[in-house]
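Researcher: Let's run the pair from yesterday's discussion. Sequence first, then tokens, for each.
Model: Starting with the first of the pair.
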Amino acid sequence: MTLSKPNRSAATITSTRVEPAPSSGMCVTCLDGCEGPCEIGRSALKGRDMIYPQPYGRMTSGAEKDFPVDYSHFNIQGTCVGAIGKAADSDVAVFTAVDCSTELGADSSIKMDFPVFTGAVGSTDVARVNWEEVAVGAAISGVIVVAGENICGMDPEAQFKNGKILRSPEMERRVKAFKRWYNGKGGIIVQANVEDTRLGVPEYVIEKLGVEIFELKWGQGAKDIGGEVKLPDLDRAVQLKERGYIVLPDPGNPAAREAFRHGGFTEFERHSRLGMVEEDGFYREVERLRKVGARYVTLKTGCYRPADLARAIKFSSNAGIDLLTIDGAGGGTGMSPWRMMNEWGIPTVYLESLTYEMCRRLKAKGAYIPPIAIAGGLSLEDHIFKALALGAPFVKAVCLGRAVLAAAMVGKTHGRLMAEKLNNNPDDLAEGYQKLFSVGSALKDQYGSDFSQLPAGSIGMYSYIERLRQGLQQFMAGARKFALRHITRNDLVALTREASEVSGIPYVMDCDREEIEKIIG
């Protein structure tokens, strides 16, 4: 049984002529004369362009590989006995009384109204265009928004001196959008990769823009290389090469310039460099960021081999960082190679199970365990509960990348359609948004005259998070857990032997055996 769907996908806008062979993905009969709608055929014409999902820069994509074990292989345990965190009283222990807030930071001083934060909204067009919707949505929801890598380096209006960033209007816009609506909960994280560090982005955003949470990035779950961006403009390609990025084809090569002018290819590619992790260097960089003025230092790592997960956890423990985000395979991105997204890395359930085991062993030795967040293919309230439970008590939050962006984009689209219908009249829009969004009236009551200034996409994201909140409250009430800190691994049951073996969660037919014997006698 094949787990993949090679050679055809909606992500690459490709298909096969007839039923494909399972492992190769090629048509069982490959016909001479076929125009080649598959990835192989399209690659014969478009070459490297077909490595990436399409239409590039206007969408996000997520893996479609069927992993042997995922979160659907677990169910949430319910019980009809008692209540933890509330009095066992039917009039007190109601689901709306469930506390979904969480705390991050080594000193637990980063307060969040809900245990989710955004994926890294970085330098791709889809991220740039939707930043305000996502950032404001995070601010009014009391959660964290992450400004991804390469924002300053990609800013056409950025100013540099001696190879260091002096000013980035784009980064200023991003920080300002969040701070304008910040309500004291959540926060804004800025990431840095190799190029960002070389350009002096940490110093700039911490010292000049007042960013308190800074994130080192080892990678992500959707790719094993640095970030990619498409460049349809030759001058832009030259600019980014001069700023230190890898640009393919080389815009300084006369043959490449000629091919671009003749339409042989229509876009250059900007690539980031691979980071090289070294233990002492990691500690030095964490300490340097603190000296620069970062109040909190965090780390984002991808689904590398288990030894690298051990490095991330142990180094983070030793350095006393404030958050470790671990991103599993099967998630999504706006800019990853499609086959890499499906065929590289450790899937989220496996990665989280390894994380729990490593954290448990370190904790037994008396080591500090930083708050941990799990990412990779998560989107709904059952995913949140299961991720928190599978890694309890170490996992404190969940990163939702494509999901929050999708909610923001849908809200933006419907807001635009309504604005066109109402000729952009602010008063009419405020009333229209109250009809369009189920949370509209509540937000109008909260923000008053400022309500009409909220981006429609932000309201959509807030509405989505409110849905997640109530859904999570209902699951938690059913498990009789009335605050996140009470969720444990005992709240899950494995539906297959394989899921039990991978995770250590009891198989459903083996669960509660000791208690059953006490009851039955």
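Model: Moving on to the second of the pair.
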Amino acid sequence: MQGSACACWVRCGRVIVAAGLVWSVAAVWNAALAAGFQPSETVFPDTTRAWLSISDPRGLRERFDRSNYGQMVADPAMKPFIDGVKEQISKNGRQRLEKLGLTLEDFEGIPGGELAVAAIESQPGQLATVLIVDTTGHEAAAKALVEKITARLVERKSKVVPINGAPPQLTAYQIPDDLQDDRVPKNRRVAFALAPQALVVGDDALQVGQAFAVLGQGRKDSLASTAAFAAVAQPCQKALPAATDPVRWYVEPLAFAKAYQAANPPKEKRKGPDYVAILGRQGFDAVKGAGGVIAFAEGPHALRHHTMVFAPPLPGREPQAADCYDLAARMLRFPNVDGLAPPAWVPRDVTGWSALHWDMKAAFASAETLVDDVVGEKGVFDDVIASLKEDPDGPQIDVENDLVACLGSRVSMLTDSIEPIGTDSDRLVIAIEAADEAKVAATIAKVMDADSDMQKIDLAGHVAWELIDHSAMVPQLEIETPGGAVAHADDDRRHNPDDEAHRRRARLREKDEKLLPHSSVTVANGHLFIASHRDILERVLVTPGGVDALASAADSKAALAEIDALLPGGNSLRSFGREADTVRPAYEMLRQGSMPKSKSVFGQLLNGILGDGKPGTVREQRLDGSTLPDFEQVRRYFGTAAMGMQSRPDGWFISGMSLPPAPTDVATKPTTTAGR
């Protein structure tokens, strides 16, 4: 499990490098010297915003190695790529660690029991990272590591900071200013404490000291004592059999995001909406915590995971009622239903399918405050809805009554890809249930006819509309506002309100075109279909059901039957995917060095996250995939995966698994080479 081990060591490295505050604490240190330590969730404080624990690293590695994923990593054909990834991780780590005299390799062979890391909000807006390692059976190696760290820190001219009342086991170092991140305050320190069977390392001496002091007995105000952690941990642990050596995790989403944002300010000031603040204002802080367990080689499953999202109703509100949350968070209504299965029109050989049962009428009614908050101007949502109804140049539709009221409550999505694999191979279809198909069709026709960029076509005997491909047209000189994102009212711009509204709609449209540049739309089979390309929509429209449908494929039936066993009863979400077909487009793009040029939704999202944010620029691929073997050499390691979600009175419970590869009855994928 070299890849997973490296990931753990990267976390360790980041812990050592980070900075801290001055520490002073009075505690009973002798308790820390007891054999072993209490479970880390009872040692870390209730101000822990994120936590990850591996209770038995050795057991986890053995299970991973037994899984088909571990077998793939161990395949000699993958060795050049795996070695390259390890070298890149090590190199990136050394760039941060060498200033402190550390390397990632220093941490090999230290864990003898639980390895846990926590992000603790030590003060409002400040995050401390603390790592605890059970070194049972590896005490000599742990001691040697501490001595090596000490020597290297001294060599780098870091100075020991005396701490009044601290035991000899704890050492704090002042890191020279020229070795620190210029985005965070100076005068930062790192600290470590070595007990006979435990090592505590962190970037905040106070938190390191407090954790060290309670290793033996835990603390009353611990992470485990919080209602959110208990509500998340209990159902997840109950769902997983004992002795599975899982990875456990927990996060308070908004609290962590706010603290991380404050502790890691961007180097350059960014314009536009602050989505973390917006989600907090819009009632999404109702999500108090999320966490779960992940296990490998558990029973028939190559991988199995359970997640609980804890979002209890507000005080005095009924669970799952329309008003159980406030403002935009009211759109989080996902009723459970029976029979959430692939419809007959989903082709048998697609890569994946998912469906969500969603109260879309409640979502629409709750969207006003969110849209206004994102734009930064009250009334924008109502203005847009009004313009669609009243603008003589627009479609003149009543969105709520002519469209939303006529929709059902099921949203389906299917994914696929075509041969040969290239930057535009991925295919996507979103299908929204239409309760009144005729009225939805009439409304969509009015919208499409009013849009000069959509052309009417006949698709398998159905009236459809396709976005005109402007890429082949004669280029025109355009001057656009830098950023290209949704304008926010706080931006310093002088504008005419009507002109700005027009510009805002144009930018939103441009963003949609970039996401689905070849989109096609139609209403058929009781659904509103929005597809990334014409060819995938046509395949959906001509699928007759029966043996040609995904629901009849043996692999999908087997995987979804596993979800029936894990989540008996009604579900609000179901999904199924073929891992090899899901992974292959990204695999080939990575192998070709073309991932940054991918036109898939995933590729564009990845570019948005990893890119520099400058319009027209293509990011550099960070991972060298040139040493990857031909995909057919590793296809045999991929199986199928499925997932389900149940809405509960206090949130949502998610279970998922993957089955190892086995012979299937899936037909050979089409070799369509059409570009749309």
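Researcher: Give me one sentence on the second I can quote.
Model: Residues 417 and 425 are 5 Å apart (CA to CA).
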